[in-house]
Protein backbone atom coordinates (compact mmCIF):
# COMPACT_ATOMS: atom_id res chain seq x y z
CA UNK A 1 0.00 0.00 0.00
CA UNK A 2 1.35 3.47 -0.82
CA UNK A 3 2.89 5.19 2.18
CA UNK A 4 1.92 8.72 1.13
CA UNK A 5 -1.62 9.98 1.64
CA UNK A 6 -1.70 11.93 -1.60
CA UNK A 7 -4.92 11.55 -3.46
CA UNK A 8 -6.26 13.04 -6.62
CA UNK A 9 -8.36 16.17 -6.92
CA UNK A 10 -11.40 15.07 -8.94
CA UNK A 11 -12.58 11.73 -7.48
CA UNK A 12 -14.88 13.37 -4.92
CA UNK A 13 -17.37 14.10 -7.68
CA UNK A 14 -16.66 10.85 -9.52
CA UNK A 15 -17.08 8.64 -6.45
CA UNK A 16 -19.89 10.34 -4.55
CA UNK A 17 -21.75 11.04 -7.78
CA UNK A 18 -22.11 7.33 -8.48
CA UNK A 19 -25.83 6.59 -8.42
CA UNK A 20 -25.72 3.11 -6.84
CA UNK A 21 -23.87 3.87 -3.60
CA UNK A 22 -25.44 2.67 -0.37
CA UNK A 23 -25.78 5.02 2.61
CA UNK A 24 -22.90 3.18 4.29
CA UNK A 25 -20.68 3.61 1.25
CA UNK A 26 -21.54 7.31 1.03
CA UNK A 27 -20.61 7.77 4.69
CA UNK A 28 -17.35 5.85 4.22
CA UNK A 29 -16.29 7.94 1.23
CA UNK A 30 -17.33 11.23 2.85
CA UNK A 31 -15.10 10.39 5.83
CA UNK A 32 -12.30 9.33 3.49
CA UNK A 33 -12.40 12.60 1.57
CA UNK A 34 -12.26 14.59 4.82
CA UNK A 35 -8.82 13.13 5.63
CA UNK A 36 -7.43 12.83 2.08
CA UNK A 37 -5.06 15.44 0.75
CA UNK A 38 -6.71 17.25 -2.15
CA UNK A 39 -4.32 18.24 -4.91
CA UNK A 40 -5.05 21.32 -7.01
CA UNK A 41 -5.87 21.16 -10.69
CA UNK A 42 -2.88 23.24 -11.74
CA UNK A 43 -2.08 24.60 -15.18
CA UNK A 44 0.35 21.69 -15.62
CA UNK A 45 -2.49 19.24 -14.90
CA UNK A 46 -4.74 21.02 -17.39
CA UNK A 47 -2.03 21.00 -20.05
CA UNK A 48 -1.45 17.27 -19.54
CA UNK A 49 -5.21 16.62 -19.70
CA UNK A 50 -5.36 18.40 -23.07
CA UNK A 51 -2.51 16.23 -24.37
CA UNK A 52 -4.24 13.03 -23.22
CA UNK A 53 -7.59 14.02 -24.74
CA UNK A 54 -5.89 14.86 -28.03
CA UNK A 55 -4.41 11.36 -28.12
CA UNK A 56 -7.56 9.38 -27.37
CA UNK A 57 -11.21 10.01 -26.58
CA UNK A 58 -11.71 10.06 -22.82
CA UNK A 59 -13.99 11.81 -20.37
CA UNK A 60 -12.91 15.10 -18.88
CA UNK A 61 -12.95 13.53 -15.42
CA UNK A 62 -10.69 10.64 -16.47
CA UNK A 63 -8.31 13.06 -18.20
CA UNK A 64 -8.02 15.22 -15.09
CA UNK A 65 -7.54 12.21 -12.82
CA UNK A 66 -4.86 10.65 -15.03
CA UNK A 67 -3.12 13.99 -15.56
CA UNK A 68 -3.05 14.72 -11.84
CA UNK A 69 -1.38 11.37 -11.19
CA UNK A 70 1.16 12.01 -13.95
CA UNK A 71 2.01 15.57 -12.92
CA UNK A 72 2.35 14.75 -9.21
CA UNK A 73 4.11 11.42 -9.82
CA UNK A 74 1.43 9.36 -8.08
CA UNK A 75 -0.06 5.92 -8.54
CA UNK A 76 -3.63 6.06 -9.85
CA UNK A 77 -5.72 3.81 -7.62
CA UNK A 78 -8.80 2.64 -9.50
CA UNK A 79 -10.90 -0.41 -10.09
CA UNK A 80 -11.31 0.72 -13.69
CA UNK A 81 -7.77 0.20 -14.97
CA UNK A 82 -8.93 -0.63 -18.51
CA UNK A 83 -9.75 3.02 -19.29
CA UNK A 84 -6.22 4.12 -18.34
CA UNK A 85 -3.93 1.30 -19.54
CA UNK A 86 -3.13 3.11 -22.79
CA UNK A 87 -1.42 5.94 -20.87
CA UNK A 88 2.00 4.30 -20.84
CA UNK A 89 3.65 6.59 -18.27
CA UNK A 90 0.78 6.17 -15.79
CA UNK A 91 1.26 3.82 -12.84
CA UNK A 92 -1.99 2.01 -12.02
CA UNK A 93 -3.15 -0.04 -9.07
CA UNK A 94 -6.42 -1.92 -8.67
CA UNK A 95 -6.54 -2.79 -4.95
CA UNK A 96 -9.28 -5.34 -5.68
CA UNK A 97 -6.82 -7.39 -7.76
CA UNK A 98 -3.57 -7.14 -5.78
CA UNK A 99 -2.36 -6.21 -2.32
CA UNK A 100 0.28 -3.78 -3.53
CA UNK A 101 0.84 -1.55 -6.54
CA UNK A 102 3.10 -2.72 -9.34
Automatic annotation (TrEMBL):
Gene3D superfamilies per record: 5'-nuclease (3.40.50.1010)
Domain PIN: 24-85
Domain of life of the source: Bacteria
Cross-referenced InterPro entries: PIN-like_dom_sf (IPR029060), PIN_dom (IPR002716)
Protein name: PIN domain-containing protein
